[in-house]
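Hey, quick one: can you model this chain's 3D structure?
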Amino acid sequence: MPDASETLTGWLAAIAAPTPSPAGGSAAAIAGALGAALAEMVAGLTARREKYAAVHPEARQTVERAAGLRTHLAALAVRDAEAFTGFTAALALPKRTAEEQAARASAREAALQEGAAVQLELLDGLAETADLAAAMTERGLAGALGDAATGALLAAAAARSACWAIRSNLEGTGDRVAAAQQVTRAGELLDRVERAERRVLEVLRARVV
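Sure thing. Here's the predicted structure for all 209 residues.
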């Protein structure tokens, strides 16, 4: 399984391999990390241009925060793959006796909960990534408009994936109250991401012929 230091080529090969993991959740995390990298890049370029002196404090803060998000989201690609490996291991447990069936069910639920928790953490990071990229789309270097916008659009796509992954994982868990709370939180975060995405699309429609 790839780790957070793996090259992009290595991750692509691992995802493409005919194995259960890494898969969609890891791909969403990598997309989010790329979105954060683009926000970081545009902010860095903006901070170097005197024409954008009024935006320099925001740009420098964005560089710092986006760098942290880039690292964090890439690490979540590994955690998601590990969570799915735990799920497949749970399914492989014996189920001949009542005790074995109970142990298998408990392990399966724990793995599903972990998978949902990883994707909810991913969604939280994607919301901030989308906000940062949207801000750089609006106020960052004009020549890098498309790059900042791509960062936000990548975050939005990954967020939609994460939100549905959370719903799918929690559908098979027993604590329906906790599941409903997590699904509600996921929906709130997705709404935040999509608000940022709409800001970006408004800028693109206004500035791109």
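One thing worth noting: The domain at 8-207 is CATH 1.20.120.680 (Four Helix Bundle (Hemerythrin (Met), subunit A)).
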